[in-house]
Structure formats: C-alpha cells, structure tokens
From TrEMBL:
The keyword Transmembrane helix applies. Coiled coil: none annotated. The keyword Membrane applies. Keywords: Membrane, Transmembrane, Transmembrane helix. The lineage of its organism: Bacteria, Bacillati, Actinomycetota, Actinomycetes, Micrococcales. The chain crosses the membrane at residues 20-39, 70-89, 101-122, 149-171, 203-224, 252-271, 300-322. This is Uncharacterized protein. Residues 333-348 have a biased composition (Low complexity). Residues 333-354 are annotated as: Disordered.
Length: 354
C-alpha cells in the first residue's frame, strides 16, 4: 500500500533514490532554490532605491534592464526542466541506439543561448548615450559588478569540467562504430578473456561538452564586459542601475556555474557507473566463471559517482535561483513612491563597482 510504503521511506531510501533517480535531485534543488528566492524577495531591494528618483523614472530604468534579466531567468528554468525531461527521454522514450552525445553538452548549450540573448539585449536595449553624463568617469572592467566568490566558483566549475572531460577522454576507447565511449578494462591473469567494455565518459560526450564550455565562457566574459562598460543614464539613476547590473552579472555568472556543474555531474555519473563494475561473469555450458575486474582508477570513479548527485542538487539550486529572478521583489511594490536620501546623504550615488 502507498501509505505504509511512504511511512517506511527512511533516510537510506532517500539517499538511494537520489543516487539512482536524478529527478530527486531536481526536487531537492527546487526546495532549496524556493527557500533562497523567498528570502531574497522579502529582504532585497535597498540598493535599488535611487535617491530622489520618482516612480515613473525608476520604472523606465527597470525596463531598460528587464529583458536581459528575463532572458537569463528563462535560461535557468529551461536548463533545470530540461535536466528532468532529458532523463525521462533517455529512460522511457529513446531506444538506446547510438550514444546520447547531447547528455553532457545540453546544459552548456542552453546556457550559451541565454547568455548570448542577454548580451544582445545589453548591446541594444540596455545601452545608449547617457541623458546626462555621470562624473567622475571611472573605467569599469568585466569584474566590476561580480563578486570574487561568484567568479571563483565559476572558474572552479569550468576547470573541473574541462579537466574531467580531457582525462576521461584520454582513458576512453572507440567502439566498433568509431565512437569513443568505451572504457576497456583488462581482466587480470586471464589473457585469453576479452577485456571488459563498459560505457564511459569518452570523447563522444566530451568533445561537444568542451566546445560548449569554451563558447559559454567566451560569451559570459563578453556579457560581463559589455554589462560593465555601458554608460549610466544620469547621476540620479546610478544607484538603481548599479544594482541592476549586479543582478545581470550575477545571473550570467551563476547561470554559467550551474550549467558547468550540471554537465560535470552528468560526466561524473557516467564515470561512476563505469567504475562500479567489479566482476565479470562468463556463462558456459552448464557452468559459469567469475573474474575480478581491476581498474586502477576505480576508487576515484566511485567517488565521482557518489558525488554527482550532490553536484546536481547544487547546480539545480543555482539555476532555479537565477530563474527565480522572474519573481517580483519586495521593493517593486513601492516603485511608485519617491525615495528620499538618507540623513547625511548627498542625494547622488556615483559609485561604479560592487
């Protein structure tokens, strides 16, 4: 019965479900992201109150940045939902013929589309000549509106994905069709027995992933650079525009990080599945022979496979938090009310960076 089965669903059952059924990672990532978005929606907004900025002008400034924010948010949601749909497609619809070469590269490609769309919107709708020049002019770079923590995270994620992809590709072997998706494991002390061949994170998965990773990193860098370089509209809008640009930069960086981590988790699952094979059984007439399978990196592969669900949850949480930027924030309700400068304030914020 359903109720007794749910009542007996303990921590070990949950751990097993997460390890073997990726949609469970989506559920946990969704819960974590919803918590983060709810907290942010009720606590953020102070930085977006431009001093002396009337509601109509504030709304116009927000519209200037709305397109790029929505593009990044939609990309985050699409990647997260695509993660579940891709698993269901491979598990219940696809006939399994050939290699699912898109498995690792898909999050990177969708993130690339989202970042490029945001970049186009930054260069068109989000840029233009200032209504009134802001002084003093300060040169801004692509790191100006991103936190060091976020930049460090995306760097680690990208390097981990690249390193894993290259190492696994070098360890892979081609199948009869020439697709590099096998891991060939020799049988110790049994030269007359063919090596064991298991599906692995080979070049058939790795090449599309590397291409997507390079293009995504370049697009993210260009988006961050253009986001920082464009002019502010006028001195009174600097505060709200600076907050909007931090939001754009954060969306680009966390979308890229989430896509890299989700691709990394997919590669680690493939590696973990290959490393979990420890025995080869050959059935003969009336008897069967068992051989121990030894791969020198089997322990590392097992660790990667065990860590993959955790990486998936973190990635999905990041992507859905980016998607949560579609949720109106608490300060939007008061957008029509003029903001007054605080005591001791000059009334104009001309800060540029973080």
């Amino acid at each position: 019965m359903l109720i007794p089965s749910l009542a007996s669903f303990g921590p070990l059952d949950l751990t097993g479900a997460i390890a073997t059924w990726p949609p469970m990672s989506f559920v946990l990532g969704l819960v974590a992201a919803a918590t983060v978005v709810a907290i942010r929606a009720n606590t953020s907004g102070g930085d977006e109150r431009g001093a002396g900025l009337l509601g109509a002008r504030r709304s116009a400034v927000r519209r200037r940045y709305a397109g790029e924010h929505i593009a990044l948010a939609v990309a985050g949601v699409v990647i997260a939902l695509g993660f579940v749909l891709e698993f269901l497609f491979r598990g219940y619809i696809w006939d399994g013929s050939g290699a699912s070469w898109w498995r690792v590269a898909t999050p990177l490609v969708v993130a690339l589309v989202g970042v490029v769309t945001a970049l186009v919107l930054v260069r068109t709708r989000g840029s233009g000549a200032p209504e009134r020049p802001v002084s003093p002019p300060v040169r801004r770079s692509w790191v100006s509106f991103s936190s060091p923590v976020a930049l460090s995270a995306v760097t680690v994620a990208a390097l981990a994905l690249a390193g894993t992809t290259v190492a696994a590709g070098l360890a892979s072997s081609p199948d009869d069709a020439g697709d590099w998706l096998w891991l060939v494991i020799p049988i110790p002390n049994a030269a007359d027995v063919d090596p064991l061949r298991v599906v692995f994170y080979g070049w058939v998965y790795g090449v599309p992933a590397l291409v997507g990773l390079v293009l995504l990193v370049v697009a993210a860098w260009r988006a961050l650079d253009r986001n920082a370089a464009r002019s502010f509209l006028r001195p009174e809008t600097v505060a709200i525009e600076r907050a909007a640009r931090r939001r754009t930069a954060g969306g680009v960086v966390w979308l890229t990080t989430g896509a890299c981590l989700l691709a990394l988790a997919a590669g680690w699952r493939l590696i973990g599945n290959a490393g979990s094979t420890t025995t080869l059984v050959i059935d003969g007439p009336g008897t069967s022979t068992s051989y121990d399978v030894a791969w020198r990196y089997a322990e590392l592969a097992s660790i990667a496979g065990a860590t993959a669900p955790i990486v998936e949850i973190i990635a999905l949480c990041l992507l859905l938090v980016v998607g949560g930027s579609l949720v109106p924030r608490a300060d939007h309700a008061s957008a029509t009310a003029p903001a007054s400068p605080g005591p001791g304030s000059s009334g104009t914020d001309v800060g540029y960076a973080r």
